[in-house]
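Q: Given only this backbone (144 positions), what sequence would you predict?
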C-alpha cells in the first residue's frame, strides 16, 4: 500500500464502511483493485484510493436497510432533525480543509475552488437545518 499524496488531519474520511458489506474505502490496496472504482490524482495519474464496487445482488439489501432507516427517522421530531443537520454542518466545517484536499486530488480543482465547493455545500446543510422545523407533514403530488 502506497502513501497518500496529501495529508489529512481527520482519518475517518479514508475508512468509511458501507452500510451493508462493511467494506471500506481502501488506500491503494492492490488486492481489491479489480473489484473497485479507482480514485486517481488527475495531475499525476497516481491511484490513491479505491471504493468497493457493488453488485446487482446488493440492491435488495440496500433498499431494505434504507427503508428501515427511513421508518426510524420519520418518527424523529423536527427539532431533533434540525440538531442532526446542524451537527453534520459542524462536522463538515471542522473537516473543511481535509474535504477540500480530497476534492483537489479527486477532481484536479485548485484548492481555492475546492474550499469554495465545500463552503457552498455547507450553505445547504445550514439552510435545511433551518427548514427542518418547518415541516408540515404534507406531500406534494407528482404531475404524472
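A: Predicted residues:
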Amino acid at each position: 500500500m502506497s502513501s497518500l499524496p496529501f495529508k489529512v488531519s481527520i482519518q475517518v474520511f479514508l475508512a468509511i464502511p458501507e452500510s451493508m458489506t462493511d467494506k471500506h474505502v481502501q488506500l491503494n490496496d492492490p488486492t481489491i483493485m479489480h473489484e473497485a472504482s479507482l480514485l486517481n490524482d488527475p495531475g499525476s495519474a497516481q491511484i490513491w484510493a479505491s471504493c468497493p464496487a457493488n453488485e446487482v445482488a446488493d440492491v435488495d439489501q440496500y433498499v431494505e436497510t434504507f427503508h428501515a432507516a427511513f421508518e426510524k427517522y420519520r418518527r424523529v421530531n423536527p427539532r431533533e432533525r434540525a440538531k442532526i443537520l446542524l451537527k453534520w454542518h459542524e462536522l463538515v466545517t471542522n473537516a473543511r480543509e481535509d474535504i477540500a484536499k480530497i476534492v483537489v486530488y479527486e477532481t484536479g480543482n485548485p484548492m481555492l475552488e475546492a474550499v469554495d465547493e465545500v463552503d457552498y455545500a455547507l450553505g445547504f446543510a445550514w439552510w435545511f437545518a433551518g427548514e427542518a422545523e418547518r415541516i408540515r407533514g404534507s406531500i406534494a403530488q407528482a404531475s404524472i
